[in-house]
Amino acid sequence: MTARRGVRLGPVGLRLTHRALYATVAVLALLLLGCWIALFTGDLDLSTSRVWATLGGDGTTVERLVVVDRRLARTLAALLIGFALGCAGALTQSITRNPIASPDILGVTSGASFFAVVLVTRPEITSSVADRAPAELVAPAALLGGLLTTACILALSWRGGFDGLRLILVGLSVNSLTLAGVAWLLTRAEMAEAQAATRWLSGSLNGARMPEVLMMAPVMAGGLLLCLMLARDLAALRMGRDLAPALGTAPARTEGLALLVAVVLVSVATAVAGPVSFVAFIAPQAAMRAFGTAGPPPVAGGLIGALLVLGADLVGSRLPAELPVGVPTAVIGAPFLLYLLIQHRRRTSV
Q1: How many domains are contained in the chain?
Q2: pLDDT of 210-240, one tens digit each?
Q3: Rounded CA gap, 159 and 181, in Å?
Q4: What sign does the CA torsion over 186, 190, 194, 197 have?
């Protein structure tokens, strides 16, 4: 029998096997290493003592600009965005019981992107050009887009509950429509607005600043708490919608709440960095294999997602020609998708 260790606080419980405990320690160690590289290295050569002094509030104007406004904000944004996407992917994959049902494939990400691009590229809606679109406007637009897109997908696919295949087919259709809408908006926009929107659509942390980080932090904290509270119900739901009520879980309520949490998380993350592709798809599957869980674990998926985004940003920002964070994640994600499809084909052909 596998030994487990855990704690429980009211409705929130967390139990870890030895394998999950070791994986957690390893991922946290890699995250700390990535944060150290991101904060203490870069184009401007600053000594370790000066970086610590600046983080403590005793730095020059230039040092504060580089260390706090650029490095620290970008690092925290990478962690929060990766965590949000990993959690959201695990939630959608759990409620659909399908390993490819991530928010970007289901159309939630493209719906959030469409509404944000509308705000960015249409001067009659906002007086700011794309590079200066305030986060307090872009974030609600992306959140509204994610919620409306999800409502549309549910209206078209709900038949007393979720069917994984039907939900994916409807999501792919909506995803194609919203991507076509984004392309149309770009062709109608002015050159400067279209260029800025295109940079945003590639998934980039270049514009991440502390106000955006402070806006995301409470949303991610609330998402973490809800993921912990939903852990038992999601585990019961993986046994099947017919068996879940016998285990004390209301399938429709669990699916609805989990989907709502996933949509809010991915919409806020998209509002800050644009659509960072494949993280919501890769992270839960990688976490399930690394932590040895029966299904995609939301919290562990969030940790793997944070590690993926932070690592991709470190790689992309240190190349001779800097790449947006969405490019390295796509390079990793496409082969991983093919790997899962091949595995699924082998299982079904046996």
Answers
A1: 1
A2: 888 888 889 889 988 988 888 888 888 777 7
A3: 28
A4: negative
Residues 6+ apart with CB under 8 A from 14: 6, 7, 8, 228, 231, 299
Expressed as residue numbers, the domain containing 175 is: 15-349
Stronger pLDDT, 128 or 145, i.e. the higher one: 145
Q: How far apart are CA 157 and CA 174, in angstroms?
A: 11
What is the C-alpha R_g of the chain? 20
Q: What percent of the chain has pLDDT over 70?
A: 86
| 7 belongs to a structural domain | no
Beta bridge partners of 4: 17
In the chain, how many H helices and how many E strands? 14, 2
Indicate which CATH number applies to the domain containing 241. 1.10.3470.10
For residue 1, is pLDDT > 50?
A: no
Is the pLDDT at 66 greater than 90, yes or no?
no
